[in-house]
Amino acid sequence: AVDSFPLDFNEPETLNITRYEEGKAPEPILGAVVKQNGKQVSGEISVSPGTPLSMEIFLDNASAPVYGLQVSYMHVTDTGKQQETIIFNGCSVDPYLFDNFVTTDGDVLSAKFR
Questions:
Q1: pLDDT digits (tens, 9 = 90+) for 34-43
Q2: The dihedral sign for the CA sequence 44, 45, 49, 51
Q3: Nearest of 88, 89, 86 to residue 112 by alpha carbon
Q4: How far is CA 57 from CA 3, 24, 32, 68, in A?
């Protein structure tokens, strides 16, 4: 239940601000890793179609408490000329091929894909 204001509550029309405060948020650094069988892969890998993989997207430790993450668009490519959209408006285009991103702690987004 929401508490209501007391009947004699009166908000002033003018507020006297006596303090000035300025701060800066850390510059966010985005990271992404691809894992196979729970182990990070690096560089180019060759896998058979249907091989289960996962992708994790995260922020550095300094900016993670300040910022949030959202994957609204993602495409994949095997050459500079051919590409395919796999995430559009935050949703997987083909959940069988690439799951929607989920989070358990709010700091790391993860998705399984084949």
A1: 999 888 988 7
A2: negative
A3: 86
A4: 40, 24, 4, 11
Q: What is the DSSP letter of 36?
A: E
Encode 87-111 in three state secondary structure.
Answer: EECCEECCCCCECCCECCCCCEEEE
Task: Specify the residue for token string 């300025």.
Answer: 22
Asked if residue 22 is part of any domain, the answer here is no
Looking at the 3D structure of the chain, how many domains does it have? Answer: 1
Q: What range does the domain containing 61 cover?
A: 30-113
Residue found by looking up tokens 């399984």 in the block: 112
Specify if 94 maps to a domain: yes
Task: Classify residue 80: in a domain, yes or no.
Answer: yes
Q: Does residue 25 sit within a domain? A: no
pTM score above 0.90? no
Instruction: Identify the residue whose tokens are 């204001």.
Output: 5
Q: What's the distance, Cα to Cα, between the start and end of the chain in Å?
A: 47
